[in-house]
Amino acid sequence: MRFEFIRAESVQYPIRTLCRVMQVSTSAYYDWASRPGKVIEAQELMLRRRMKALFERSRSSLGSREMMKALRGEGFVIGRYRTRHLMQQMGLKVVQRVAYKVTTKRKHGDAVADNLLNQNFNPPAPNQVWAGDVTYCRTGEGWMYLAVVMDLHSRRIVGWHIDKRMTTALVTRALIMAHTLRRPPKGLVFHSDRGSQYTSAKYRQLLRGYGMRASMGDVGACWDNAVVERFFGSLKHDWLYKVVQPTREHMKQDVADYIRYYNLERRHTAAGDLSPVEYDNSLKKVSGNC
Predict the structure, then answer these.
(1) For 274, which DSSP code?
(2) Inter-axis angle of helices 168-182 and 201-210, nearest 10
(3) What is residue 185's predicted lDDT score, i.e. its pLDDT?
(4) Which of 53, 265, 279, 285 has a CB 3.0–4.6 Å from the CB of 154, allowing a cystine?
(5) How far apart are CA 62 and CA 72, in angstroms?
(6) Residue 131's closest CA among 162, 174, 165, 70?
(7) What is each CA distance from 62 to 65, 99, 231, in whole angstroms?
(8) Would you say 197 and 134 are in contact if contact means Cβ atoms under 8 Å apart?
(9) Measured at the alpha carbon of residue 209, what is the angle toward residues 203 and 211, in degrees to the nearest 5?
(10) Residue 73: which region, alpha, beta or left (left: phi > 0; alpha: psi -120 to 50)?
(11) Sign (positive/negative) of CA torsion 56, 58, 61, 63?
């Protein structure tokens, strides 16, 4: 076997070439190369690992503000600037995709309720105002339709149903789930758009049976149900369309996973930077109803 010694000059030549291409002086390179590696302390390492885990858990949707809130909620002392700087260093960049928008139309002759909400999205207590809406999501097997019911006080999704058909039964089952879970007092305001599912006689009968008052937004005014629209945007932009949705069953499970994540982990400014469930639980502790 033949061994050859390489002269130092031949080793330095590529470095000089690279420095010239990168427009960096060779002295600066050797100064950098001679510096000792930076030691990352255990607390810093734990912080970075947690940031990466939270970012992956959100499917690359947590911006610096929401990341900061999540870290603070876990006991880390960190500000917005440092959070943003670390995310840049770690390559944690938010990725979004454009989602689809759904509109539903009222059948001629169906009754329309007055707008009792008037864009007041912050009721003072739970189970006073719920909001519902329908959207659709595409899979490899075709469309799926999702109906949700949200308690506007905590922004918690208290009822939902997903199906391959957009019928009155879709929104009915979502409301039945919400009522079974929360058992709200009579007089609750249920706000929706003027879609045929919500203006149907069957749905209005269900509301009356529960002692709920119907409220409906104006035609074409998506901001009249802006909080639920924002939820749908997060569901699609931050979650569903970042992975392949090959089947309806896969979509159904993914929607369930997001609603669980949204209710238990996703923090909201309107809920004091707590998740909806945390906010509900904090109110129970204050009232003594643990």
Answers:
(1) B
(2) 10
(3) 95
(4) 279
(5) 14
(6) 174
(7) 8, 17, 15
(8) yes
(9) 105
(10) alpha
(11) negative
Please report the DSSP string for 201-225 in residue order: HHHHHHHHHHTPEEEEPPTT-GGGG
Residues 177, 149: contact at Cβ < 8 Å? Answer: yes
Q: Identify the H or E element spanning 135.
A: strand 129-139
- State which amino acid sits at residue 236: K
Instruction: Please state the rounded mean pLDDT for residues 92-101.
Output: 62
Give the per-residue SS3 of 148-188: EEEECCCCEEEEEEEECCCCHHHHHHHHHHHHHHHCCCCCC
User: What is the Cα–Cα distance from 182 to 263, expressed in whole angstroms?
Assistant: 15
Mind listing the pLDDT tens digit for each residue in 208-263?
A: 999 999 999 876 555 678 899 999 999 998 899 889 999 999 999 999 999 999 99
Tell me the one-letter amino acid at 126.
P
**Rounded-to-integer distance, Cα 19 and Cα 29, Å:** 8
Distance CA 182, CA 199 (A): 23
Instruction: Give the DSSP H/E element, type plus range, for residue 144.
Output: strand 142-151
Amino acid (1-letter code) at residue 58: S
Taking the C-alpha atoms of residue 179 and residue 159, their distance in angstroms, rounded to an integer, is 8
- What is the percentage of the chain residues whose pLDDT exceeds 90? 44
- In DSSP terms, 133 is beta-bridged to 148
